[in-house]
What we know:
Helix content of chain A: 25-40%
Strand content of chain A: under 5%
CATH architecture of the domain at 3-256 and 527-551 in chain B: Alpha-Beta Complex
Structural class of chain B: alpha/beta
Oligomer: heterodimer
Amino acid sequence: MKIEDKTIEYVAALAKLELSEEEGLTHERARGDLERILAYIETMNELDTEGIEPMSHVFPLKNVMREDVVREDMIRQTEQMEGRQIRREALLSNAPSQKEGCFVVPKTVE
Amino acid sequence: METMVQREITAWTALELGRRIRAGEVSVTEALKAYLDNIEQTDGSYHAYVSVWREQAFQRAKQVEQELKEGKYADSPLAGVPIAVKDNICTKGEETTCASRILAGFRPPYQAEVVDRLLSAGMVIIGKTNMDEFAMGSTTETSAAGATRNPWDTSRVPGGSSGGSAAAVAAFEAPVALGSDTGGSIRQPSAFCGVAGIKPTYGTVSRYGLIAYASSLDQIGPIARSVEDLAAMLEIISGWDEKDSTSVSSEYKYTYLDVIEAVKQAFKDEKDRKELKDRNQGGDIKNACPPQVLAGLRIGLPKEYFGEGLDREVKKCVLEAAEALKALGARLEEVELPAIKYAIPAYYVLASAEASSNLSRYDGVKYGYRTADYEGLQELYKKTRSEGFGEEVKRRMLIGAFVLSSGYYEAYYNKALKVKAVIKQNFDRAFEQYDLLLSPTAPNVAPRLGESLADPLKMYLGDIYTVAVNLAGLPGISIPVGFAEKDGKRLPVGLQLIGRPFGERELFQAAYAYERWQKASGEVKELFAEKAEGGQRDDRERREADESKSTI
């Protein structure tokens, strides 16, 4: 299928990606790749699926529910630590920017 | 320690190494050192690892040594054995990057369930292995850490996405490794590197702590140099886990080593019988017929898996192996899976859709890479993701966003789910008549570096024999069945066996019987003993050549 420029822009916006104009996966290359890959994907239309139900999971799966409680036995990663404060630190330790126990992001509301 | 002893240590199967460790013949530290030395010597050429845990591993080895003395791990056949872990499996406090720039420096605050199980079994993690970025690729070239090379021919790729794990095992840089398989990522690199790998039935191994690519298809599984080791590894990592809601809580017992023992016993009984006969009648053992350990096993050969696009030599190797299974008592027949040719298109729709959703979490806020300059939240997201992800990952996220977008959802995503249902029906029908299905693992031997990257669609087509297994949630094993000669080099060929849901026992039975018979009959040369000698010699020569260059 023919992919329009605006389609590529729309899809890139959905994926929160900027396509480069010069190098790597450029806008033009992305469009060409997508066209060729989708053309191949469309071969699946040859298969008659009339009356077939879409199948998400091959085995019957049920939603797994549990009480929303802190499970000390499952917080093994912090077994040597005491208290919630330190656990929070452990979870924040990978953040590129953190302050006072929170993730730091640019101002989003004026 | 003398090199000969070290070479011996690394030539043993993981089970043999485990036995000798528990018998006190080799210490855990010695075993670890032997493998670390191999890594030191050869990984500069192969680049199977993204991180090697020298210090932590020695500390851990000492701890396990002590625990063994205290009588721990009595029922654990692989206690003290080193293992390599694919870099998309979370290791608490140790860098886990998915070979992506976007996760550079990420140290998970928690342990993957499989890693917990390895540690409970007394195993020693030796390092993290290279992979295609986020497991998207079939060559281990899309890694942000650079490509891994195939130990059999360093001008070729090891396959992917678990290429680092397969190369590490093939190069004697680890006795066993963990990989993950979404569309063939354990089986295909195992085939290309001449080792064995199994993708278990979906739900057999917990995905807790496996960084998601396509959650409905991803499964963790082991890679090893022998089928026995695969069975031992799968016993360790399989079983229900409450932290993975797709983990199967069946009454099914995840035991596999008893199958191996049964096959072993059958061979032994046969040998005893033959020897007795030989002594009595002066007959020739070599001409003996193999024990009929696979009597009653029905194996289907899908017609579609032996058609156009299959390399002639690969086909020859696979059909010879099929003959060996027949000689062992299995009944082989052709079977049809007419919808199978639509597995790749359906796979790339579903996997890409799930990837685009799963990878939306990389936003430069919670962990990993964040772009240097940005204005506002939207730009932070866009620049972080555009700089942090590689090309193939971006391509799949674009496909995923497209097939899920309104207006296209029905024609692509829903259609793919229907195709998946038909493929599942095809398999169900085949398994009414057959216990196992047999095919090549990949249509060709390992391609040269760079060959696949130029044409993504062509790379996708290489997954033709493996993806349907993931779509249907079935178990699949790849075992080495010989070599195809390309440009004067012998390159490994893999055979795939596909089982019913939770049919791992039948897979192990057939695969181990083949392995055992192959060794016993001497039809195929000792795959690995020869490699152990040849590989290390080549590397020494290369290293010496490099050294002489650098002194000039």
